C-alpha cells in the first residue's frame, strides 16, 4: 500500500491471460431492446491468441464514484456485486432498457471518485471491449454481537476492477484535488471541448425524414409563422439517392443548393446525415473510389468486409487509417459533394458501427483494419475516428477558417474535440425523460460537454404534457434538438394546440435569451475543461447531501435547474445547497436560503430555475428568429448578491463562427464585479481585440435591501451621468434601464 496526499491506491492484481490461437466461442447475447436471449455461434480466428488485461484498484476513503458513460443509469455508479458489471462496448441499441449496465452507443473509460476534500479520476485508456466492476465497502459495519467498547470505525473504500479484451495497461490517475482541476487535467490529456459555432447552441428541428424540399420550406415557414425561433433543420437517410451518402434524391431534393441558399438567407442551416457504411454498388463512383483506394475494412481472409445496413449490402470505411480519414474529409469539399454549400453541416450516425447482420448488430471482432489491427482492438474508437474525419473535412472545406458542426452518436474519450454527442434512440416516455438527466451529467463529467437527448423521444408518440416538459428540460441542456422516427406522428411545436405551442415557444425563447451565458460557458469548456452541465457536488464539493443527487444540476456556477420529469406534477421538491447561500427564483426574484429542501409549486409553463447569490448572468433582450439576431440585440445583466453583497460573472463574445478568436485573438472577454455598491465592467485577463456594437441595456440587482438615493454611471473617458432606476422594496430588487453601455468599454455603476 502506498499513500500520497491522503489517496491510497492498492494494485491488487494486474494480469494477462492467453489461450490457444484458434478458439470457437458459443456466446449468449442479451438483446436489451427486446428482453430476449439469442444464441450466436461466433467462429473467430484470433490472430495473436485470445487475451485479456485487467487491474484492480482500491480507492480508500471514497464511497461515491461516477463516470463510465454511456449507460442509461443513475449518476452514481451502483455496486455491481448484485449483477452485471458496467460494460463499455459501443453498440446500436435502439429503445434501450433503463437502469442497465450494458453498453450503449459510446464509451469513455473514465471513473471519477469524490469525497468532501478530494476528487480524483482513473482513466483506463483501452478501446477494446471492457468491463468494470464496482464494489463499495460500508462506512460502519460491525457484528451486532461485538460490544460497543470494542467496535471500531471502518473507513469507506471503493474497489474497482477493470477488465479489457486486448491492448496494454495504460492507466492514468488524475489527482485533482478538486473537480475543476480534475476537469482541466482530463482535458489536457484527451483534448478540450471544441468551441461550437453559435448556431449550434440554438434549437435544431429534425425527424426521420422530411419528405422533400417543399416539406422543409413549409416547416421553416411554420417556425416564422408561429414566432418560434430555430436555427437548423435536419435531413435523415431518405434525402439521399438510394442511401448513397453524399448524394441527393433526384425527385425529392432536385435543387439542394437552392434549398440551402433559401435557409441561409434567413441565417439558418441545413444538416444532413453521413453514415460510415457505403452501399456496394460498382456503378457508383464513390464506392469504386473507396474500393480502389483500399479504404474499406477487410475480413480475416483479406477480402473487403461486407455487412447489412440501410442501403442493404454495404462495406465499411476504415477510419483507423489516416489515409482513409483524409480521403473521407475531401469528400465534403464543395466541388466533390455536389449540391452542398458552406451552410451545410453533418450528422454521423450508425457509427458504432452498426451492422444489422453482425454479432450484437456490430462488426465482427476479427475484421481487420489498417496496420493489421483486429477490430476487437479498436472497436470503441471507430465512431471517434469518423467524427474526427468529418470535422476535419468541414474545416478543410472552409480553407481552415470556419468552425465545423458535427453530431456523432458513437464516441470515445476525446470526442469532445470534434463536436456534439447525443444519447441515441430513446423513447417518448417519462422514464426516458427522467434518465436523460443523469446520462447527460455522466457524459459531462467525462469531458463530453456538448451533449443532449432527442426532445420528445425518438420512438413512440409523446403526450402533450410530456413533450412540453421535455422541451423545458432540453432548453436547459447543452445540445437542443427535437427528433423522431419516420413512423411517428409529426410533432412540430405548433401541432398540439395553442396552450402547448405557447409553452414550447416560451421554453425555446428562454433558451435563446440565455445564449450569451451558454456561449460564455462553452468558452470556459474550451479553455479550462469546465462542462456547462454539472452535478451539484461539482459546485458544492463538501455538501454530502448533493453527492447522490441526479435529478437536479447546475448550468455553470450560477444557475440551478430542477426539470419536471413526472406527469401531473403541481409541486416539486428542490434541494438548495449549502447553508449561507442565497438562491433567487428566476420567475419571481424571490430569495431563499440554502441548506434546505424547498417545496415549490409549478404549472405547465414553469420549471424550477434558481440563480445563485454571488453570480452575474448576461441575457439577450428582444425577439429572436435565430441565433444570428444575437449580434444586434442588447444585453440585460442580472446581478444576484450573496450574503456579503458581492457578485461576479463573465461574458465572452467573438464573431460566433470562425477561428479568428484563436488565430487572431479576435474576441472579447469581459468581467462584471459587484462590490460595495459598485458594479464594474472590465477586461478579464489579457483579453483580445474584438470590437462589437453590443450594449448593456439594463441591469437588475437582486438582494438590495435599502432603496438607493442615487445611481450614477461612469464610462471611461466620459463624465458621470445619473441613471433612472426602479426599486421594488418587497422584492429587494433594483432595476436600471435605458443604459446603452457598450460591453467592450470599461464602465462603472455606483449605487449610493
Automatic annotation (TrEMBL):
One of its GO terms (biological process) is carbohydrate metabolic process. Keywords: Glycosidase, Hydrolase. It comes from the Eukaryota. Residues 529-617 form the Glycosyl hydrolase family 31 C-terminal domain. The keyword Nucleotidyltransferase does not apply. Residues 47-132 form the Glycoside hydrolase family 31 N-terminal domain. It holds the Pfam family Gal_mutarotas_2. InterPro entries: Gal_mutarotase_sf_dom (IPR011013), GH (IPR017853), Glyco_hydro_31_AS (IPR030458), Glyco_hydro_31_C (IPR048395), Glyco_hydro_31_N_dom (IPR025887), Glyco_hydro_31_TIM (IPR000322), Glyco_hydro_b (IPR013780). Residues 194-521 form the Glycoside hydrolase family 31 TIM barrel domain. GO terms for molecular function: alpha-1,4-glucosidase activity; carbohydrate binding. Belongs to the glycosyl hydrolase 31 family. This is Glucosidase, alpha; neutral C. It comes from Acanthochromis polyacanthus.
Amino acid at each position: 500500500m502506498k499513500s500520497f496526499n491522503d489517496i491510497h491506491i492498492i494494485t491488487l492484481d494486474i494480469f494477462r491471460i492467453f489461450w490457444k490461437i484458434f478458439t470457437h466461442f458459443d456466446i449468449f447475447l442479451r438483446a436489451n431492446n427486446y428482453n430476449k436471449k439469442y444464441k450466436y455461434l461466433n467462429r473467430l480466428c484470433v490472430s495473436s491468441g485470445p487475451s485479456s488485461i485487467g487491474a484492480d484498484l482500491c480507492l480508500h476513503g471514497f464511497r461515491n464514484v461516477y463516470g463510465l458513460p454511456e449507460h442509461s443509469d443513475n449518476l452514481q455508479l451502483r455496486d455491481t456485486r448484485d449483477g452485471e458489471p458496467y460494460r463499455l462496448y459501443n453498440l446500436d441499441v435502439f429503445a434501450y432498457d433503463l437502469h442497465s449496465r450494458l453498453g450503449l452507443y459510446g464509451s469513455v473509460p473514465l471513473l471519477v471518485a469524490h469525497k468532501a476534500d478530494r476528487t480524483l479520476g482513473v482513466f483506463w485508456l483501452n478501446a477494446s471491449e471492457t468491463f468494470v466492476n464496482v464494489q463499495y465497502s460500508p462506512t460502519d459495519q460491525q457484528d451486532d454481537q461485538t460490544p460497543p467498547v470494542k467496535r471500531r470505525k471502518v473507513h469507506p473504500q471503493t474497489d474497482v476492477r477493470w477488465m479489457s479484451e486486448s491492448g496494454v495497461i495504460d492507466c492514468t490517475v488524475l489527482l485533482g484535488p478538486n473537480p475543476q482541476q480534475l476537469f482541466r487535467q482530463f482535458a489536457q490529456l484527451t483534448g478540450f471541448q471544441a468551441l461550437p459555432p453559435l448556431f449550434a447552441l440554438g434549437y435544431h428541428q429534425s425527424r426521420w425524414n422530411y419528405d422533400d424540399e417543399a416539406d422543409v420550406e413549409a416547416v421553416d415557414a411554420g417556425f416564422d409563422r408561429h414566432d418560434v425561433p430555430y436555427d437548423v433543420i435536419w435531413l435523415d437517410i431518405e434525402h439521399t439517392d438510394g442511401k448513397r451518402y453524399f448524394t441527393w434524391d433526384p425527385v425529392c431534393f432536385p435543387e439542394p443548393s437552392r434549398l440551402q441558399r433559401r435557409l441561409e438567407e434567413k441565417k439558418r442551416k441545413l444538416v444532413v446525415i453521413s453514415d460510415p457504411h457505403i452501399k456496394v454498388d460498382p456503378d457508383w463512383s464513390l464506392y469504386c473510389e473507396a474500393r480502389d483506394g483500399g479504404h474499406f475494412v477487410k475480413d480475416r481472409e483479406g477480402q473487403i468486409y461486407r455487412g447489412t445496413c440501410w442501403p442493404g449490402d454495404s462495406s465499411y470505411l476504415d477510419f483507423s487509417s489516416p489515409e482513409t480519414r483524409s480521403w473521407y474529409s475531401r469528400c465534403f469539399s464543395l466541388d466533390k459533394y455536389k449540391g452542398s454549400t458552406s451552410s451545410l453541416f453533418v450528422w454521423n450516425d450508425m457509427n458504432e458501427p452498426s451492422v444489422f447482420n453482425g454479432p450484437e448488430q456490430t462488426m465482427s471482432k476479427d475484421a481487420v483494419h489498417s496496420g493489421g489491427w483486429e477490430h476487437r482492438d479498436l472497436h470503441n474508437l471507430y465512431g471517434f475516428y469518423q467524427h474526427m474525419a468529418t470535422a476535419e473535412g468541414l474545416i478543410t472545406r472552409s480553407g481552415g477558417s470556419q468552425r465545423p458542426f458535427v453530431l456523432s452518436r458513437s464516441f470515445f474519450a476525446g470526442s469532445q474535440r470534434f463536436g456534439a454527442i447525443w444519447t441515441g434512440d430513446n423513447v417518448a416516455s417519462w422514464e426516458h425523460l427522467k434518465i436523460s438527466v443523469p446520462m447527460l451529467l455522466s457524459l459531462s463529467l467525462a469531458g463530453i460537454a456538448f451533449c443532449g437527448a432527442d426532445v420528445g423521444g425518438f420512438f413512440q408518440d409523446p403526450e402533450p404534457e410530456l413533450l412540453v416538459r421535455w422541451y423545458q428540460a432540453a432548453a436547459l441542456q447543452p445540445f437542443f434538438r427535437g427528433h423522431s422516427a419516420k413512423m411517428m406522428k409529426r410533432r412540430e411545436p405548433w401541432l398540439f394546440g395553442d396552450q402547448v405551442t405557447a409553452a414550447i415557444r416560451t421554453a425555446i425563447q428562454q433558451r435563446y435569451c440565455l445564449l450569451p451565458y451558454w456561449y460564455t460557458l462553452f468558452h470556459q469548456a474550451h479553455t479550462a475543461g469546465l462542462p456547462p452541465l454539472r452535478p451539484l457536488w461539482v459546485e458544492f464539493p463538501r455538501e454530502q447531501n448533493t453527492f447522490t443527487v441526479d435529478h437536479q444540476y447546475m448550468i455553470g456556477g450560477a444557475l440551478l435547474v430542477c426539470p419536471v420529469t413526472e406527469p401531473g406534477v403541481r409541486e416539486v421538491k428542490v434541494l438548495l445547497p449549502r447553508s449561507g447561500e442565497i438562491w433567487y427564483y428566476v420567475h419571481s426574484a424571490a430569495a431563499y436560503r440554502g441548506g434546505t429542501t424547498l417545496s415549490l409549486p409549478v404549472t405547465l409553463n414553469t420549471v424550477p430555475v434558481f440563480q445563485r447569490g454571488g453570480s452575474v448572468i448576461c441575457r439577450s433582450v428582444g425577439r429572436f428568429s435565430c441565433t444570428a439576431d444575437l449580434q444586434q440585440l442588447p444585453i440585460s445583466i442580472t446581478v444576484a448578491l450573496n450574503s456579503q453583497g458581492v457578485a461576479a460573472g463573465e461574458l465572452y463574445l467573438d464573431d460566433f463562427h470562425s477561428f479568428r478568436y484563436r488565430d487572431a485573438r479576435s474576441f472579447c472577454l469581459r468581467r462584471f464585479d459587484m462590490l460595495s455598491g459598485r458594479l464594474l465592467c472590465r477586461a478579464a485577463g489579457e483579453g483580445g481585440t474584438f470590437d462589437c456594437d453590443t450594449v448593456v441595456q439594463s441591469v437588475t440587482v437582486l438582494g438590495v435591501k435599502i432603496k438607493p438615493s442615487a445611481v450614477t454611471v461612469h464610462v471611461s473617458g466620459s463624465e458621470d451621468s445619473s441613471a433612472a432606476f426602479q426599486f421594488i422594496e418587497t422584492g429587494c430588487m433594483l432595476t436600471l434601464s435605458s443604459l446603452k453601455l457598450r460591453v467592450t468599454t470599461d464602465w462603472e455603476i455606483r449605487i449610493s
